[in-house]
From TrEMBL:
<dbReference type="InterPro" id="IPR001584">
    <property type="entry name" value="Integrase_cat-core"/>
</dbReference>
<dbReference type="GO" id="GO:0003676">
    <property type="term" value="F:nucleic acid binding"/>
</dbReference>
<dbReference type="GO" id="GO:0015074">
    <property type="term" value="P:DNA integration"/>
</dbReference>
<dbReference type="Pfam" id="PF00665">
    <property type="entry name" value="rve"/>
</dbReference>
<feature type="domain" description="Integrase catalytic">
    <location>
        <begin position="3"/>
        <end position="67"/>
    </location>
</feature>
<protein>
    <submittedName>
        <fullName>Transposase</fullName>
    </submittedName>
</protein>
<dbReference type="InterPro" id="IPR036397">
    <property type="entry name" value="RNaseH_sf"/>
</dbReference>
<dbReference type="InterPro" id="IPR012337">
    <property type="entry name" value="RNaseH-like_sf"/>
</dbReference>
Amino acid sequence: MFVIDLTYVRVKQHWHYLCVMVDVCDRKIVVRNTGKQKNPQLVMDAISQILINSVALFHSDGGKAFDNYLLDECLS
């Protein structure tokens, strides 16, 4: 089971977004991705780094960056 979420971090004088995917079974970060904008592309770039067929269950908080038909297509 993988969970994914976004947060923001300050780097020098600018805010950047961090997308992290964690394997809940062993509590390890399996994917991370950063970007200057909080958008579905940031999430899709993170998801594209894994073999989605190997994921039995995928969970997100359903925030705006995850509310996108492109993500649905990517996950199906």
